Amino acid sequence: MATDTAAPISVRPTPALNVGFVFKRACISALIAFGMFALMIGVRTEAGGTSAQLVYWTRFEELAAIVAAVFVGSIVVELLRHRFRHFEPANLVPRALEGPLATIRRLIAPALLGFTVLIPVIFYDQRYVLDLSILVLTYVMLGWGLNVVVGLAGLLDLGYVAFYAVGAYSYALLATTFDLSFWICLPLAGILAAFWGVLLGFPVLRLRGDYLAIVTLAFGEIIRLILINWQTVTGGPNGITGIPRPTFFGIPFTAADDGFAAVFGIEFSATHRIIFLFYLILALALLTNWVTIRLRRLPIGRAWEALREDEIACRSLGINTTTTKLTAFAVGAMFGGFAGAFFATRQGFISPESFSFLESAFILAIVVLGGMGSQLGVALAAVAMIGGFELFRGLEQYRMLVFGMAMVLMMVWRPRGLVGHRDPTVFLQHKTAISSSLVKEGHG
Amino acid sequence: MNGPSDAILEVTHLSMRFGGIVAVGDLSFSAERGKITALIGPNGAGKTTVFNCITGFYKPTAGMLQLTHADGKTFLLERLFDYRISKLAKVARTFQNIRLFAGMTLLENLLVAQHNMLMRASGMTFLGLIGAPAFTSAERRAIDLARYWLDRMHLLDRADEAAGNLAYGDQRRLEIARAMCSEPALLCLDEPAAGLNARESGALNELLLAIRADHGTSILLIEHDMSVVMEISDHVVVLDHGVKIADGTPEHVRNDPKVVAAYLGVADEATAVAVMEGQR
Amino acid sequence: MEYFAQQLINGVALGSIYGLIAIGYTMVYGIVGMINFAHGDIFMIGGFIALISFLIFVSIGLTAVPVILLLVLLVAMATTALYGWTIERIAYRPLRQSFRLAPMLSAIGMSFVLGNFAQVSQGAQVKPVPPIITGGLTLFESNNFAVQLSNVQIIVVVTTVVLLTIFSFIVARTRLGRDMRACAQDQTMAALLGVDTDRTISMTFVIGAALAAVAGVMYLLYYGVVDFYMGFIAGIKAFTAAVLGGIGSLPGAMLGGLAIGLIETFWSAYFSIEYKDVAAFSILIVVLIFMPTGILGRPEIEKV
Prior knowledge:
The complex is a heterotrimer of chains A (444), B (280) and C (304). With 444 residues, chain A is mainly alpha-helical. Chain A has helices at 2-6, 19-40, 60-83, 95-122, 127-152, 161-178, 182-204, 209-229, 231-234, 260-263, 271-297, 299-309, 311-316, 321-347, 357-370, 375-391, 399-413, and strands at 43-47, 54-58, 247-248, 251-252, 421-422, 434-435. Chain A contains 17 helices and 6 strands. In chain A, strands 1-2 form a two-stranded antiparallel ribbon. By secondary structure, chain B is an alpha/beta fold. In chain B, the strands form 2 sheets. In chain B, strands 6-7-8-3-9-10 form a 6-stranded mixed beta sheet, sandwiched between helices. A 4-stranded antiparallel beta sheet of chain B has the order 2-1-4-5, covered by helices on one side. The two termini of chain B are 30 Å apart. Classes of the chains: A mainly alpha (444), B alpha/beta (280), C mainly alpha (304).
């Protein structure tokens, strides 16, 4: 015993790599893969031509390839595991570097913001980059909105896309039927979405954890099904077309005499509108961020976080958990509604297809990958996720396969997300980040 | 002794049933204003259930729980919805298994306890959002109160650490500080000395006496540690199997054969008397 | 009246399928405490495997329908059991000690993987098969409306009942069942008392997946089509059934399945077919609000 405690850990003998064991494992993996894929990949079915008769043909090469890949993959994983068995992410950063790193970390957010503001200047003539940036910012905003509900209040919401949809359809319907301008419709869309948030929040207040998740999921699906089936109002699966494009406070982005270019005496370019949209979503996203940061430092925000930590203790301190939860739902939904209105005006066309469960899962994945509750983390995660999706643009049909696998790997590798600490909202002497292992994730 | 009119809490005929199990049966007692009342009894006697009824986590099956403030305002606790008991009737509590906001700092924990005051000051968030001066000064006062309690608990230098990082004894004290930050008329402590060593529980005695002396807070506590109960309580209520078996001063209760019988688990009072005789 | 009786029969058959899927949800939730989002997609894979193996058996010259049916069932159950085992191993086991959201997101990811896998490997179109089992009984006839009980419906209900009996026996009487019940109560304690919890949890997933495969086969027989998207909606409805019956309770899952099947059928028959899913989801919300523990679930007392 005495020698055990005295010996430094690094002297521990390295277990030799057991070749037989690795080989056996790889064989078993390959066998299982064969069992799983023999029919699904080895045989391809197709409804043949005009008759309802199904035809099938075999694809043994593909099957062999995939089984071989699993065999090799299993060996590689075992070898990697052996090589990095003492590897701990915590040791990755040497102590001496932690000070400078903290400074860098503090500089990331301003640097990122500065760069974002300059994107239209740097990439003025690259339509693709501008469009992609707008998409990223939309998801940053959605992530920040959902972060209020999931990250701060700890309420698991799998139907967030419903509020995005409510915002988009509110704007589309208000703008096409009543001819209201974007700046009137935007707050209305937000308010309507918040109203739906409360409407959903009210009945589900008593639910916890997984039940809450499944009810919000069902709610999201109900909204989508209503959008598909209520043809007279929503246009059904065809959606709503001809949604008014955004104007520069009443000045349209057209080549006409009263258009933006003519009024400001510059040459007409289609890019003006894109740049306007870019700054619009940037402003909306920053508004979301600002409000969230402010709210966190107010009693309501602190109550949200306390609710995530311990609901029973909250009640014993006289906090009305009902209204606290409802405000979280309402605020999150409102931001979703804003984002939805923006989406509608940007696209000019919306249909229920854009508001599937996949979107909810995508936004939730952004929040979780970001590190729940962290504003910067959510922004980084949105960039990473959309960037990842763009990388696989060429493999359109494998997108979901890759996205799903990424989700699984992400959870296995880093369930606490990219930014794994919580910033206190108030301090006496000095601000110290709180490790995420202490922070609860809520039970609601 | 003051008359019964100066009771802060009067429990009359309280019963709580879970299905067929009677956790508390027809319990009546009262807690005096500005005094320390202890609720003791063997495991499973129904003490925490009584607490949960008082603080609104359970709705009693029958009975009345009347709380009277010093200004004569009365509240029927069994009719108030859980969070309103703390908000309106000013009853604060701690928990047997400490329930702190582990991922928040000590200071944040104490600010959450002042939620309702701050909420009003922030004009239901809207004034706070634009940074109204009324809210800023209210927040400063709240931080000062938190600072005062952190200092009292010798936790001031750890104010910015996560509550989950504190040692067990410190967590217990922080929970009491958090309850006190809501400025309660009645403080309910569920086994505050559990898990503390002799020195710590001695310090706890002094703390509770000081809270009573400095703030006039009435205290109702559940405790197993007899050194705490006997030293600081003014009044002891003994429960066994959900029924009150003794009620009086610590001296009186200590010598009650029924109490000894309940604690030793002996068959009847005669044996208990014999045991007590033997001890002397 | 005749119309009503016919809908009742249809509802029970559909409900049996939901019930079989719901058992997988309820078992996994009871033991690991997570919603296995990928379970609906395992049901879908089961449907595909059934379709492919059916084609193969027919093309190699098997003609006896009962033999084909039995073989298809066995192949589908064995293959999806592998899927259930692998998914647990890859996506859930590393996260067992992790925080609660992690396995849920991992499960959602797995659900996407399976759905997309089926789409990529077998194509996105709906795949129809000619009716395998035809005919049926006319129970009674009046007002020009015949109440029919088709052979498929008989097979669906009989298979469900038989499997449920076998399964109840496993849970109630065998060593594995005892281990499963012990793990559901308290995993740590069960492990301390010598229960191999890893193996038990794996077996739970395997059994759940096999039952989902049976549901997939029945679905193929009943509707004659499979597609890669059918797992999602069916999965949510089956989960609704599990919650409705009281999650963690096996008879509850079956009861809930029947209830959802009947509600859906009657809603389609008497109100509108477009909103049948809305009806099912609304039921879920209403049930959770007013009866959070379901019909046969045990009430949960809040510990303070």
